Amino acid sequence: MPELAEVDHSRRQWDPGLDRRVMEIHLPRPEVRIFRGEDPASLRRYLVGKKLVGSEARGKQMLFQFSGGAWLGVHLGMRGELRHERMARGGTFLPRKHDYLCLRMSGGSVLAFEDKRVFGRIRFHRDQAPPVWWTSLPPSVHTDEFTLRLMADFLARRSRAPLKAVLLMQECFHGVGNWMADEILWRARLHPAIPSGALAPEEIATLHRTVRWVSRTAMRIISDDWSYPPSWLFLHRWEPGGSCPRCGADLDRGALGGRTTAWCPACQPCRG
DNA sequence: ATTCTTGTTGCATC
DNA sequence: AGATGCAACAAGAA
Question: Residue A70: in which H helix or E strand, if any?
Fold first, then answer.
């Protein structure tokens, strides 16, 4: 689930903890690879007593800021999600099977990080300034800094790689994941296997416009009521024998860029 | 039992 | 040197 818009949705799930203090930290399995490269014990040492003062999402990355110069980086991997729960009346909280980090906050709420597939990542940083891995992230695809020029230059550098593989590269298409990439290519009427260097200038412009439209519209729909209209390709792409919501043709499926890819053979003609 | 998976990384190869 | 492709990572779901 977690691509750009869902990541920002997850981030907001911890909003009830804003301006609250960390009272206690549960780390049910500190050895799990979520914490690779970190020392979970120091996380507990430095975070308890601090106040959650802000959060931000960029692409699929999130950063939570705590008082006193403490930062928590969260990546949801394949199946991660953030959750907020009220403590039960007796002041108890039962973590779910795949909860790996739970912050009990003042005011009686719990902020939980759950990850059924353990591909996510928690990072901890202690300094007045945010961590370098965060400040050096590229702009998310839904922002104005994701310019046509930036995208066109990147396509030129990856000219022999198929469009689908290139759309998954976070160093340019920051926040795009597997279903968004398929959705974008389908709406731009571009076959996923077209080499990135084979696009005409007007096709590059169309692709850029479509990336922005899909990412911005997904952000709006998810922050609203999560109701994607049936005209969206990704609602149909996993059904066996799914058909194109635009022309009704049977969708094609295959592996591209190492990932399952769905496209409409009629709307996205093969070439290159 | 087998195969699939909405992500990233490290390594081999081109 | 830089670009590209792919296996590997874990564990649940179908």
Answer: strand A70-75
Report, as an integer, the average pLDDT of A101-117: 96
Q: Is the pTM of this model over 0.85?
A: yes
End-to-end CA distance of chain A: 32
Q: Is residue A162 within 8 Å of A172, Cβ to Cβ? A: no
Q: Which of A134, A121, A132, A40 is nearest to A80 (CA)?
A: A121
Distance separating alpha carbons of residues A265 and A254, to the nearest angstrom: 12
Which residues from the 66-125 window of protein chain A have CB within 7 angstroms of nucleic acid chain C?
78, 97-98, 116-119
Residue A43 to residue A206: CA distance in whole angstroms: 45
Residue A226 has pLDDT above 90, yes or no: no
Distance of alpha carbon A92 from alpha carbon A116, whole angstroms: 23
Cα distance between residue A82 and residue A52, in whole Å: 15
What is the nearest nucleotide to A234, using C1' and CA? B6
Query: A18 with A156: CB under 8 angstroms?
Result: no
Strand partners, A126: A70
